[in-house]
Write a structure and sequence with these properties.
- The chain has 282 residues and is α+β, with helices and mostly antiparallel strands.
- The chain folds into 2 domains: 120 residues, hypothetical protein PF0899 fold, CATH 3.30.2320; 104 residues, Tumour Suppressor Smad4 (Sandwich).
- Helix content is 24%, strand content 26%.
- The protein has 7 helices and 16 strands.
- Strands 12-9-8-6-7-16-15 form a 7-stranded mixed β-sheet, with no helix packed on it.
- The chain is globular and about 55 Å long.
Length: 282
């Protein structure tokens, strides 16, 4: 039984919730064991995350949407320890994304975890606030199957040598390994940009990246893409292409098997968030 079938159902009963908690905990113990070393309240944090992800407020939405921004408040000594090991926040965000995906949640942007120093908290205290956040420009194109219809045969040419087919209505681009298009370049932000289909066209959005997003030499926040447009993301150059235009019609979204291409700047075409051979599976 795959993870989605295992977790997904009408609502989330106590058994599924307990299994999901164990699942997230095993993901974190495997890939972020230092969380338990720095945070004696790590298990309580995981319990709170599970309650958040399995809340009807998210699962019963149409489509089901997961929180994308988490603010973790910690006492000063623990806050400083995590700040010095900030990669652990990315690992926590990866686990949230993986677990949320497996219970059928969609994310308007990839989850991120922010750290808040809270001197008012006791030594093993914490706060966790979650919300669905996305840049204002993205809100103009809602996640809706009737709206998010990608153009036929659209693609990106990456650094003049590799072709990335744009078959999905939502394409996350950045340095973090759970992006759909991973650009392993330190000049590119972890969550840099997003392509979102809008009634047969792709729109490109910058996600408040550090290096910015340029189209044909002009810095953009959001823009419609046309064949031949040259996109610059820090050190990477992408050319948008489109072989044909299909009639606007509803088309069910089907996930496809991940695959990888190798470039001088490493480009990964959506891969599993964590290694299924080593993940603790429920």
């Amino acid at each position: 039984m795959n993870s989605l079938a295992f977790f997904k159902g009408k609502g989330m009963d106590n058994t599924r919730s307990d299994r999901l908690q164990g699942y997230i905990q095993r993901l974190l113990e495997t890939h972020a064991d230092a969380l338990w070393r720095y945070l004696p309240q790590a298990e309580s944090i995981v319990q709170t995350l599970v309650k958040t992800l399995t809340s009807d407020a998210y699962l019963q939405r149409q489509p089901p949407l997961g929180p994308t921004q988490y603010v973790l408040g910690l006492p000063p000594s623990q806050s400083e320890a995590i700040r010095q090991n900030s990669h652990l926040l990315d690992t926590l965000a990866l686990a949230i994304h993986k677990a949320g995906h497996d219970i059928g949640l969609r994310f308007p942007v990839l989850p991120r975890v922010l750290l808040e120093n809270r001197p008012d908290l006791p030594p093993e205290g914490f706060t966790l606030e979650a919300q669905i956040w996305e840049p204002e420009a993205l809100q103009a194109v809602p996640l809706d199957p009737e709206v998010n219809i990608p153009p036929q045969s659209a693609y990106l040419i990456i650094n003049g040598s590799q072709v990335f087919s744009l078959e999905r209505p939502l394409v996350h681009i950045g340095r973090r390994p759970d992006n759909d298009l991973v650009l392993d370049d330190p000049r590119i932000s972890r969550l840099h940009a997003q392509l979102r289909a809008n009634r047969g066209r792709f729109m490109l959005f910058d996600l408040n990246s550090t290096g910015g997003t340029l189209v044909n030499g002009k810095r953009i926040t959001a823009t419609i893409l046309y064949p031949g447009d040259v996109i610059t993301l820090a050190g990477a150059t992408l050319v948008y292409g489109q072989r044909a235009t299909r009639p606007l019609q509803e088309r069910p979204y089907e996930a496809k098997r991940p695959h990888v291409v190798n470039l001088k700047t490493t480009v990964t075409l959506r891969r599993p968030l964590l290694d299924p051979e080593t993940d603790g599976k429920p």
